[in-house]
Amino acid sequence: MNRLDLFPNTTTIKNNNLTIAGHNLSALAKEHGTPLYLYDRATMDSAVADYKFALQAHYPAPASITYAGKAFLNLAIAQWAQFHNLFVDCTGEGEIAMAVAGGVCREHILVHGVNKSIADLNAANNYAGTIVVDNLTELQRIAHIFTQHEIQNTSIWLRLLPGVAVETHHAHTQTGQHDSKFGMTSTEIMEAAQFCRMNNIPLNGIHFHQGSNFRDASPLKEAIGLGLDLAGEIGFSNEWHFSPGGGWGVAYHEDELPQPDSNEYVRVISENVTEGCRSRSLPLPHLHLEPGRSLVARAGVAVYQVGAIKQRGDKVWILTDGGMTDNPRYAMYGARYSCLPVSDPDKEMSGRVSIAGPYCESGDVVIEDLLMPKIEVEELIAIPASGAYHLSMSSNYNGSRKPAVLWLEPGQARVIQRRETIEDLIRRDQVISSF
Questions:
Q1: Which residues contact 142 (CB under 8 A, 6 or more apart)?
Q2: How many folded domains does the chain comprise?
């Protein structure tokens, strides 16, 4: 398969250099420095259009798409989500604040979280249209908040633990299995529904999530059936909401091409919800899909500069200025990536290399054992599928500063997140007056 197919839709090779949306990556790196993150708007727009088209084709009732704030959220991304009329999944008051500052309207803010604090729940009541309740203790906290404060047009969904996981590449990306920390059992769901009735809490939805970055939608069928059974027992009538989670996958490595088919994912969900409601005499719900990384991962590219090359026996280390502080996914669960040199990306493959960052950890690895052309010190490399779960999980380990982020459209390359500075790190802290 062609490695270039991992990159954003607008990627081309022009004058022997990688370009995205017409922008030369070498020129962008020279102007803005490295590590550098690039987001191609056209790729993100196209992903949304594909999901909307599939929903129109397969689901005969109202449906919405939710953007996962945890994948990557800042003010510009929130603006983009609002432009497309997307819901935004926020975890905690920090993401809620970013969504609000980015112009996301109240009814489009969904609040998730496995252990929401009082501050999180207060922010949700003040700014969000929906709170997805994870456990009975949280529901009791919400009842107290609703008693103490006026309910601000906030509705409640219950998060089901379906006991069925999807197949992912690592256990840490599974969320639906019986021993997961997320959600409530069927028995707890019914207890929660009874609690809502007794306390006049506006319950109108069911949510579940089974895992992230999966390709086979068939395990969703059993969980959808369980969710619809509970909806029938609760007695939802018209205008109820159902979210079978999300987490549809993307290709990170050429071995994983072609890209997973989002239409198939939507078809499986839509047909099972439609048939399941018909067989249970349930009205069709407002269906909510959470495509997760598949809206944004392929739109993002990380650009690093090579600082040193080491030969260790048969192993060649390419050491770059980016690594686990801006992309911890290899360190956390062995995620696989691919890459290309920014200049002369079509040159002949030379041998296998491993690519690592500058940090004081053996786990600071980005790519292991990848066939690459010959790379020289000071060259730039571009890593595709870098748009999700990189910067949102980044850190300041070893005093690193988070990279600049550019939003690319034809004729425009706009900074949507400036590079952190040393002053940013020091500004947080307070010196002790004396020891």
A1: 121, 125, 131, 133, 156, 201
A2: 2
Q: Distance between CA atoms of 290 and 145, rounded to whole angstroms? A: 28
Strands 12-14 and 36-40: unpaired
Residues 6+ positions from 431 with CB-CB distance below 8 Å: none
- The H or E element containing residue 361 is none
Give 130-142 pLDDT, tens digit per residue: 999 999 999 999 9
Q: Based on the domain organization, do 242 and 340 belong to the same domain?
A: no
The answer to whether residues 320 and 393 belong to one domain is: yes
Residue for token pair 């026996």:
313
The alpha carbon of residue 50 and the mean position of all alpha carbons in its chain are separated, in whole angstroms, by 17
Please measure the distance between the N-terminal and C-terminal CA atoms of the chain and give it in whole angstroms.
Answer: 62
* Residue length of the chain: 435
User: Does 161 lie in the same domain as 272?
Assistant: yes
Q: Is residue 434 part of a domain?
A: no
Amino acid symbol at 134: D
Residue 432 included in any domain = no
Residues 331 and 310 placed together within one structural domain of the fold? yes
Residue 172 sits in the same domain as residue 53? yes
Structure tokens at 404: 């600049």
Nearest residue to 303 via CA among 317, 328, 320: 320
Residues 6+ apart with CB under 8 A from 429: none
Confidence of residue 433 (pLDDT cuts 50, 70, 90): confident
Residues annotated catalytic, as ranges: 360
Decide if 119 contacts 98 (C-beta within 8 A). no
pLDDT in tens, 405-428: 999 999 999 999 999 999 999 998
pTM reported for the whole predicted model = 0.93
Both tokens assigned to 166: 């999807």
Tell me, yes or no, whether 153 and 232 share the same domain: yes
In the block, tokens 């999300």 appear at: 246
109 lies in some domain:
yes
Which residues form the domain of 359? 3-40+298-427
Residue with tokens 């103490």: 148
> What is the tens place of the pLDDT at every residue in 353-387?
999 999 999 999 999 999 999 999 999 999 999 99
Task: Read off the CATH number of the domain in which 357 is found.
Answer: 2.40.37.10
Whether the Cβ atoms of residue 375 and residue 381 lie closer than 8 Å to each other: yes
